[in-house]
Amino acid sequence: MGWPLRIIVASGIAAGAVLAVGAFGRFSFAPMPDAADVLNRDRYAMRTAYDLLGRRVSAEEAERMKATPEGRAALSPKNGAVAIDEALVQRGREAFYRETFGNEVFLSDVMGMLDGGLSPFEVARAVLALGGGATTNLKVRMSRDMTVGDRTWRKGEEVPTGLDVAKGAPAIIGIRTFYDRGTLRMGITCALCHAAVDPASGKVVEGAPNTDLNAGLLMALSKNASAYFMHASLDLAAHPGDPARTVSQEDGGKAPLPDPQSFEAAAKIQVGSWPPGSFDSSADRITNPTSIPSSFSAYGEPYSWSGREAVGPFKGLSSLNNNVHAANSDTTQQTAAARTLFGLDPELYLGTVLQGAAREALRYDPAGTKRPTEVLAAADPTPESPGLNRYAVLPSFPATNYMTDNGLFASVLGEPANHANNAMSAYQNLLRAPNAASGDAASIKAGRGVFERAGCAGCHSGPALTNNRIIPVEEIGTEPTRARAGAKMEARLSPPAMFATDTPFPLPESPKIVPIPLEGDALKQVQLGWAHAGTKGGYKVPNLVGLAWTAPYLHDSGVSVGLDATRQLGVPGTVDAGVMPDPANSLRALVDRDLRAKVVAANAGSEKTRTARVTGEGHTIWADRAAGFSDEEQTALVAYLLSVDRLTEDVATP
């Protein structure tokens, strides 16, 4: 369908929306591309019939199991089994593009994403100005002056958002817009971070990370960036406010709130320091963004930068999908654990989140009669669960277990608890990267030999070129504070468990709880990923499928080089300067110590990059002259790495 026809169709949708709004007062929309508009339409063959708490069961094995009572019991949802079929995959794709789990309320009413520097009108104007064309970096004009640190964005100035719009699409990938009886809200879906537009064709690459998404800047330009303060290096005591502006704490005492203006200014600096293409998903009160990963996830377990998402359905992938929404898109749900995680009284914690809320109904006023928890309860659209999103709540809430950060499962009304997350896992595990650009076959073969001789295959083995292990931070040598991000959660830890996979949501009175076995080496690896049991934490060995789409490299996005390898160095010389990293040059910096030293020095020279703790250090596995490799061999290695566009072994997927 050509873009003029699409605009006509979109106009028809809009006209229908006006009628719907008039009749019912509610309307929502999120784009989902047709198959013809997807660059990587090829999928892996679906050979797995069931997932049994992370164990893949083929259709043939499933048939044999069904012949015995024990086998039938193992395949039952009551024991945590997930049946995988085309319907589940299709539900996963739909959820990937359209499911917000209710985060539009936090993002709009608390954080004020639509009430800061970028207005809905200016966003719509920017999309319309494309005239049906595609962009990987939507430029949106500021609707008012706003200051982030020493940078003031002026009204009318264009902001590089990194938001993607596909060719002919009427809206931004990964954003769902809601109109509800006079109130406009926006929510985010998985596609915002894990789908990208191919700049050459304008088509969508499903599963590719949005490597220029300026999430930190977008949050800094919101009205209430302070609502994300627990993901930043911020000390409440460093921003003393009016002594009369206090919160009544749980013990009956009074605690002063931080000064709203200075605290907000500091919060904007912290989140605004994140490099494009990264996100801080660790609520450890330290600014520590990590690269947005791809969703080319088959055989890439464990998941997350540290490998902490490792247990439960799909070997931890469902846990990762869940925690994006159950822990990172609604900070109000952390109130009950605030004392354990942040050393803060829950009322003080929530008061700090809500004192600058965009909507009056959720704004805490210390001169009023309600405590922060009472303000939240009075305006909460989901009173059956903590926080503002829709959650199925384990009895162990708010304790951490290794399946869920806090005992919550983001869920959809009318389907089983956690079902959408499992469905997205089934869908993501079928995603293949686009076919790699054809290269010299002899060079690629030679590059594989260099890969083995340099020792890369010691860790990067298996179907996805990962040995599925976590490496201690002392060994890998990357930034240490990031590796300890989950350490405080050990103080309140329950055994890993989840709901039976057929548990309806809303939950019945006594839902079936399924324990997740975890012992031996598997337990030790998970403890390392969480920095528990006396460890200092670690970093997972990432899979290498689709590297052409995932630059910059390392967990902190620090290994980044542009086409000009003499000047475009590190985060300051590439993504922070609006220059996309070149995959080949960035991979060369990963394995060449001289080029890496220049990258590390460039990162160290930027205050913004230092604030984000992005260094580009670690992973000192070299394939350079000092290691005995010629420049030609290094070039061949890079060619080989960029050629890996699918699993290297014929294995059962997803």
From TrEMBL:
UniProt KW Transport keyword: no
Domain Cytochrome c: 442-645
UniProt cross-references to PANTHER family, sorted A to Z: BLR7738 PROTEIN, CYTOCHROME C PEROXIDASE-RELATED
Annotated protein name in UniProt: Cytochrome c domain-containing protein
UniProt key word Heme: yes
Keywords: Heme, Iron, Metal-binding
